[in-house]
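Researcher: Let's do a round of design. I'm pasting the structure tokens now; please hold your answer until I've finished.
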């Protein structure tokens, strides 16, 4: 398992959990549920923010700090 910030552009993964309980509620409300497939699509020049494709249906942008709290299983 790695965190979302460890993925490279184009890599896919499945959300398995979160390390920050308070931030996890915000991410869950944005559709980042355990078992959901995500793909890292964009990375800003200095690495922050990042953009992910969630369930193949929409793009979500987030800070790197938020991405580091999301645990991912590479697929």
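Researcher: That's everything. Go ahead.
Model: Designed sequence:
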């Amino acid at each position: 398992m790695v965190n979302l910030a460890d993925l490279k552009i184009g890599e896919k993964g499945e959300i398995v959990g979160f390390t920050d309980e308070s931030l996890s509620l915000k991410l869950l409300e944005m559709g980042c549920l355990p078992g959901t497939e995500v793909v890292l699509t964009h990375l800003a020049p200095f690495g922050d923010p990042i953009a992910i494709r969630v369930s193949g249906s929409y793009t979500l942008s987030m800070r790197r700090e938020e991405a580091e709290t999301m645990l991912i299983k590479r697929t």
